[in-house]
Design a protein that fits this description.
- This protein is 51% helix and 17% strand.
- The chain is of the alpha+beta class and 395 residues long.
- The protein folds into 2 domains: 181 residues, no CATH class; 163 residues, no CATH class.
- The strands form 2 sheets. The protein has a 9-stranded mixed beta sheet with strand order 6-7-5-8-4-3-10-1-11.
- Helix 3 runs antiparallel to helix 11, helix 3 crosses helix 13 and helix 3 packs antiparallel against helix 14.
- The two termini are 42 Å apart.
Length: 395
């Protein structure tokens, strides 16, 4: 109780919450300070949310695959431009007792003609064998017969509107003909994968259709999806298969490939730098605003601080007072910042398909950064207090 009483006396000496009274005495200044804090928090939350959304987007196709292990070329950079290798490599792993089944997957950038304006736009076309579906999405499994049709394709309904109103045309009139690389295909169904950084659209086709529209050689694939027997250790099996297979391919757990994909886009593209730079700028801008407000507040009340010093209060008391003001600004400024970001996230998901969501860990990280921002500004502002002298009350 004594400890609590001492802490309360520091927060509200004589029962008066000085930090709050100091801020509330000038409401315009308080509003400006809250706007600065809210802006910094909003920008940091938005930058982090967009970054997390982008990282979720880049691994969407990998997450949709139904296998614990994936076979890729040794020269793998990222999924959309992964190099091809002989399809027989996929079937060689069936000699391992831990392997239950394997599925080859081919993919390539091809031109889809917008059915309404005739403009060609590039997207990714997946080629799969009808009897060996590598995806775990139920809508693909339910429509796998489409991939046995030499002209049939499935269109990603979450693709960009630049490819035309394909989902609406299909829902209203049923199957209709389109063109990939100038060759006729028929949209016979829809699935939902979503856009990635590499492409704004996807098409699923049987291997026969894929080879016809792409003109690529047969019996090659970009990815091998490997499903293991129950209880098998993915890490151990992946290491064993990589050691036994020829040097042009390697086998990795699906989680490892997801990490590689994220690392490529975060480190080999401006995405990571822009996110970090944006968050640092938000912290600096917010800190400058808070510092300016607190410094001005201190300067305006120097006579009062000098009087309190003459009464025996130490510099530590005044430092705590300013830090309390910074903490109050953080606590109040977080609410409008979070509210605005929630609205921006909804807008980003509706207009650009960004799955902008933040976990409690992400939010706590931003709160911690904002606390550093506010407290740093508060501590810098207290330097003015050290020059406060009781003689100033007579100046």
């Amino acid at each position: 109780m004594n400890l609590l009483a001492r802490n309360m006396s520091r927060l509200a000496p004589c029962g008066i919450p000085l930090a709050w009274r100091q801020l509330y005495s000038d409401r315009k200044r308080l509003a400006a300070a809250l706007a600065g804090v809210s802006f910094g928090i909003m920008l940091m939350l938005f930058q982090l949310g967009v970054y997390k959304a982008i990282m979720e987007m880049v691994i969407r196709p990998i997450q949709a695959l139904d296998g614990e292990l994936l076979m890729v070329s040794r020269n793998y950079e990222y999924l959309a431009v992964s190099q091809r290798f002989p399809e027989r490599r996929i079937y060689q792993v069936l000699a391992d007792r831990a392997v239950a089944s394997v599925y080859p997957l081919a993919l390539f950038f091809l031109d889809w003609r917008n059915p309404t304006n005739g403009i060609d736009r590039e997207l990714v076309v997946f080629g799969i064998h009808p009897g060996k579906n590598p995806f775990r999405m139920p809508e693909i499994a339910a429509q796998i017969a489409v991939c046995a049709n030499p002209e049939g394709i499935l269109f990603d309904e979450m693709s960009s509107a630049d490819y035309g109103p394909v989902p609406d045309l299909y829902r209203k009139g049923g199957p209709f003909y389109g063109e990939i690389n100038g060759r006729r295909v028929q949209v016979q169904g829809l699935f939902a994968m979503g856009q990635t950084l590499a492409t704004s659209g996807h098409i699923m086709a049987g291997m026969e259709t894929y080879l016809r529209v792409s003109g690529l050689p047969a019996h090659q694939c970009n990815l091998g999806v490997i499903k293991l027997q129950p209880g098998a250790d993915p890490q151990a099996v992946a290491a064993r298969l990589t050691r036994l297979l020829p040097s042009d391919v390697e086998v990795v757990p699906r989680g490892t490939l997801e990490e590689r994909e994220e690392k490529y886009w975060a480190q080999r593209t401006p995405v990571g730098f822009i996110t970090v730079a944006g968050m640092l700028i938000a912290m600096v801008v917010g800190a400058v605003i808070v510092y300016q407000i607190l410094y001005t507040d201190i300067n305006d009340h120097m006579r009062e601080y000098a009087t309190l010093k003459a009464m025996g209060l130490s510099d530590l008391f005044f430092t705590g007072l300013v830090v309390q003001e910074a903490a109050i600004l953080l606590a109040i400024g977080f609410v409008p910042g979070m509210t605005i970001v929630a609205a921006l996230f909804r807008l980003a998901e509706a207009s650009a398909g960004l799955p902008t969501r933040l976990t409690w860990v992400d939010t706590s990280t931003v709160v911690g950064l904002a606390a550093i921002m506010c407290l740093s500004a508060g501590l810098l502002a207290t330097r003015r207090l050290r020059s406060a002298d009781p003689a100033d009350i007579f100046s």
